[in-house]
Amino acid sequence: MVRSDISGSGVMFSIDTESGFDKIILINAAWGLGENVVQGTVNPDEYQVYKPFINRPDLVPIIEKRLGDKEKKRIYSKEEPFTRNVPTSKAERSALVLNDRDIQQLARWACIIERHYGCPMDMEWAKDGITNELFIVQARPETVYATREVGTFRDYSIKSKGRTLTTGCSIGDAAAVGRVCIIESPADIDAFVEGSILVTETTDPDWVPIMRKAAAIVTDQGGRTSHAAIVSRELGVTAIVGTGNATYVLHSGQEITVSCAEGETGYIYDGIADISSKVIDVSRLPRTITKVMLNLADPNAANRWWRLPCDGIGLARMEFVVSNHIQIHPMALIHHDLIREEAVKRRIEKMTIGYKDKSRYFVDKLAHGLARLCAIAYPNPAIIRLSDFKTNEYANLIGGTQYEPKEENPMIGWRGASRYYSPGYKDGFALECRAIKQLREEIGFSNAVIMVPFCRTIEEAKLVLHELAKNGLRRGENGLEVFVMCEIPSNVILAQKFAGYFDGFSIGSNDLTQLTLGIDRDSGQLATLFSEEDEAVKYLISEAILKARKAGRKIGLCGQAPSNNPLFASFLVKCGIDSVSVSPSSFLAVKSNVAQAEAEA
What we know:
With about 600 residues, the protein is α/β, with parallel strands linked by helices. Helix content is about 30%, strand content about 25%.
């Protein structure tokens, strides 16, 4: 008998259960016997491992570790039914069930089992608390994405959303609207109104007749491998599990929108939103010489775009990971003991529980967040822009007000490259460097390219490259490329000199337009004057492309203009641009516009 009652157990899939991304191993874990994870009566830990690197002994390809509440565990009992639930301790709730070695071992086994059966697999595992051995206790084929056609998918858009009522773990990638029907027990099946949104604490097999009649399902408890999640996928019903409070904040008869179309986090909005969808057939997309890449920011939403035949990630925004996943100012983590506000200090301590070195929290979270972006692009390049918060945005991070000046115009203030070598931030920048080094050398994403934003002068370029090298990221070593944003007129004027220090350019059309025309891009009064298609802006763009090509450097553009106007796409192609990078929702239009422009050139 496996004594997982004094250790842990869980479920794993050899595929991402929500997007069908087949390069991911998904593992859920909780303390005690596995019944709680399977039934969805606890919110488990979640781990993701990148399959292609799993047999590399020099790498640790874990790209996600998410701590679950795990508020109870099931153990053996001397009385019938011979098992019982007991509360977990504070230490158990704040600790991950699996260490890195265990996570990688389970992932390796998942790959072996998948290879043996020749299809994506759904497996259960257990760890013996006496011997510390791991066991696979069940394996069966995954039944949802294994049967779907890979070349097509449906993309949902949610507009006119009400306020967010609660969030949880999204199951699937669709959305639904309807009236809430709170049901406490399957015995109350007669009270359920067909077509309503089922809201309950948790589900088990007795709930299936009700689940079949629901427009959507929302539960308080459970993870992505819980009963509610598995059955919802099989039924094709939109579901959000593990909200923690849906049965308290919602009420029967209330009109809501259930959205799983925004990534791994599912959102429940007040009222009936406007939902639209379209089927995307990637097999019909034209091929282009000009590379069409993606702008991405949210790691939780990245996997849903794996089917798009993009040429890589042209802009990975680090700021989203920092503001949404880390949330704490890096200097507040480095100098945690010097924080003046006790409430802020306590909040940081709570968020970084399990980290003796608070800086490590920043490095791990950033590395894992960026890894999930790089994963859908590998082996194509993923261009990661170094942090480009303005001072007012940095100040909004937890502990940030203590470290940020108040500027009259943050848009052209202490931002981008000027921060990286400054005494007021270079220690924080060192954490960014450590995260990218971990991403490339420990996790394995050597396709990560660094991009320096808002680099005003050649001297500044030298200083930033020095700081990168000092922190173990020397341009040219281990294949590391360093790009620079071309978003300031000086970047265009001195493009051939900048080319001596960087491997490529990416035109940031928003800032370049703003600084060329002298327009605050956030000004409503001047909005009609703000245009990338202005003659002066197009002149600078064409000059930047010409100078980059003369210097033998790659150059791309990240922005929405090529999707909004086919003529602008044609202009870029005629100038000889190497790549354009756009939001996923614009990818199809841009790919078509670029193909048309190439055909006409």
